[in-house]
Amino acid sequence: AYRLCIMRKLPSVLARTLTSGTSASPELPDMSKVRSKLRDIVGASTNWRDHVQAMQERKALHTLLAKRQEDLPPRRMKDSYLEVILPLGSQPEIREKYLNVHNSVRFGRILEDLDSLGVLICYTHTKQEMQQRSPLSIVTALVDKINLCQKIIHPDCDIKFTGNVSWVGKTSMEVKMHMLQLHNGDYSPVLDATFVMVARDPENKRPAFVNPLIPESPEEEEIFKQGELNKLKRIEFSTASLLKMAPTAEERNIVHDIFLNTLDTRQEGEGTVSFRSRKLPPNSVWMEDAKLKGLQICHPEERNIFNRIFGGFLMRKAFELGWATACSYGGSRPFIVSVDDIMFQKPVEVGSLLLLSGQVCYTEKNYIQIRVHSEVYNANTREHHTTNIFHFTFISENEVPQVVPKTYGESMLFLDGKRHFTAVMKEI
């Protein structure tokens, strides 16, 4: 059950680099250098009290933006290729930050690292030699998918991240990243991830053009085409959203069968059963009883280079709540299988009250599909605004109860969870 996925074959132009060397090369940057480099690229201040002035200084970079994409030099996939080391084995002093109570690596920390690396890869793709600072504000728009093929990430073995820009639109870039861990002298795959980043002007207000991407080999052509297909799939999935279209005939039958299965016929005859009288089937849990909530005060410590709350931090907090929801529901330790379709709808400002709600929305055998809803609460206006929706697929050590919707709204959450689960199973 834990052989969750087969890593897609990496393009040959990159595969040689992935397998070269058997230990952490000292010349490879680590994650602290990645974040330091990002601050240098945009001119971000390390002191919170200076952040207003730093952002004011970025306004002058407007003149460096390209008027058309055609004015920017095309780039190759290898131009943006980066390798970064996480020396958990060779530098034990950083291990504590990544360690969880089960003596494995905190996956939430890995999400943070992937987010930072994805942004740096895009800045590498768009770098102009004559510009000391980039006029672009590159932010994470979407985590398309993260699929894992290892149940455990070991806390005492070096990790290597690799990645490059795999597809480019006018103002957006798809980034493919891979994570490998050192075992017995060789790096073996742990996960692959696909992020979508968008470029905006220096003040992060309007879209900005990015360098076009030129594939150089049949393998790269295939990767680029897959990026186009991924974009079309996202559009198709969004168009068919249950918020826009009614469920399919098959899905309506599923909901109706669940409804009939929960009618209580014990006290009344078959022909006089009440629609209001509901009973929970054996080995099941009402959906309304399968949720957890959390609150996070967003301090300056968690800000990104643009002085909004770091997207990786939001993903870590959402993942940890999702894990806790799956753990309390299944009654045993859950393992992450996949992360998909995380849309960053609105930025989160420093000082915000972040409300997180984890919901079990679909179950099948040992699998638990979790939806985490993130919203910001403005204490002055008393308004709530959705910032993110997160989708996590977990596998539990034991078979879990079936989650059962009671209302129509819960039924839509159930069907949406089933759609995400089915998509994940096809992918892995």
From TrEMBL:
PANTHER family: ACYL-COA THIOESTERASE (PTHR12655), ACYL-COENZYME A THIOESTERASE 9, MITOCHONDRIAL (PTHR12655:SF0). Residues 80-203, 288-400 form the HotDog ACOT-type domain. This is ACOT9 thioesterase. Signal peptide: none annotated. Belongs to the acyl coenzyme A hydrolase family. GO terms for cellular component: mitochondrion. InterPro entries: HOTDOG_ACOT, HotDog_dom_sf, Thioestr_dom. Keywords: Hydrolase, Mitochondrion, Repeat, Serine esterase, Transit peptide. It comes from Hippolais icterina (icterine warbler). The gene is Acot9. Gene3D superfamilies: Hotdog Thioesterase. It is found in: Mitochondrion. GO terms for molecular function: carboxylic ester hydrolase activity; fatty acyl-CoA hydrolase activity. GO terms for biological process: acyl-CoA metabolic process. Transmembrane segments: none annotated. CDD domains: BFIT_BACH.
